[in-house]
Design a protein that fits this description.
The protein contains 12 helices and 13 strands. It has 288 residues and is an alpha+beta fold. The strands form 4 sheets. It has a 5-stranded mixed sheet with strand order 7-4-9-8-10. Strands 1-3-2 form a 3-stranded antiparallel sheet, with no helix packed on it. A 3-stranded antiparallel sheet has the order 11-12-13. A hairpin with a 2-residue loop joins strand 12 and strand 13. Helix 1 runs antiparallel to helix 3 and helix 8 crosses helix 11. The protein is globular, with a radius of gyration of 19 Å.
């Protein structure tokens, strides 16, 4: 039986995802997600703590099972009627935009960015916070999973195919995923640079990316040899591992077979490769 069988189950999950909530009160839905899929960590008997990866996983589950993308559905849709503006309810507060709902973080290797309203610069080790609409009209951007990378793009050995592209941070409590969704709505295509783990691959494939940036196979061996990999992170990603088990991609199957979880931070200074997708979400035969 689906976890998301009715709006009563869907609505609190949508709200948590839209708010980037890191703590939620346990109800029947959150209890099932925790018990069956190991989503969240219990805080006493009444609350769960959630990570960014937890929220992303639940978003993908909700989209797959109920056809609801939490970052694109409105609270009015979930209510079934218009919310009364004057009514000072909890839902009205949820419907209000926060500053982070319209601002995204961008950076580039060169420090120069061509955005909708002009060319802008940032110093080495810096980034820019700009309105989401500044990315509208761009052909391609690199979607970066971890914020630390945004302040160190010059420390990565980007493949020639992508090193000139603007880089967009995927989101955090301050830079909300909702703002990133708005920015990407005006971008022709994305290339993902995630952690090299099940969650990162699932995020990339469900985002229908046109490509992915990954460490070379020799660098993967080096990271594992130096014990910079994260086996505990791999063990926690139950849902992503199950989802990827049906994905017939050699790199993915190799990662699952070797139980790999490599952080973006561990890839700094190492050789990176660009793997193009023949169609959004699928490998080109030239890089398989």
């Amino acid at each position: 039986m689906s976890i998301f069988g009715n709006m009563r189950a869907i609505k609190p999950v949508v709200i948590a995802i839209r708010q980037d909530a890191r703590k939620v009160q346990i109800n029947a839905t959150w209890s099932r997600l925790n018990n069956d899929y190991k989503i969240g960590k219990k805080l006493g008997n009444n609350y769960l703590s959630l990570t960014e990866a937890d929220l992303q996983t639940v978003r993908m589950m909700l989209k797959k099972e109920a056809g609801v993308d939490a970052l694109n559905v409105s609270l009015e849709d979930l209510e079934g009627d218009r919310l009364a503006v004057a009514k000072k309810s909890r839902n009205e507060k949820l419907a209000r935009f926060k500053t982070g709902d319209r601002i995204v973080m961008v950076a580039s290797v060169s420090g120069q960015l061509q955005l909708a309203s002009g060319v802008y610069s940032h110093p080495v080790g810096g980034s820019l916070s700009v309105p989401a609409k500044e990315l509208h009209g761009l052909d391609t951007v690199i979607l970066v999973e971890n914020q630390a990378v945004m302040y160190a793009v010059h420390e990565y050995r980007w493949p020639n195919e992508v090193k000139h592209l603007p880089m967009l941070f995927r989101g955090s409590p301050q830079i909300t995923p909702a703002a990133v969704t708005k920015a990407l709505s005006g971008v022709k295509q994305i290339i993902c640079f995630p952690d090299y783990d099940p969650q990162g691959w699932m995020n990339t494939l469900t985002a229908r990316a046109h490509g992915i940036v990954v460490p070379s196979m020799s660098e993967i061996e080096s990271i594992v040899f130096k014990e910079w990999d994260k086996p505990l992170d791999y063990a926690k990603q139950h849902v992503a591992r199950g989802w990827l088990g049906r994905v017939d991609l050699p790199r993915v199957q190799d990662m699952l077979r070797r139980e790999l979880a490599l952080s973006q931070e561990s890839m700094a200074g190492m050789e990176l490769e660009f793997l193009a997708f023949e169609s959004p979400g699928g490998f080109s035969s030239s890089v398989a």
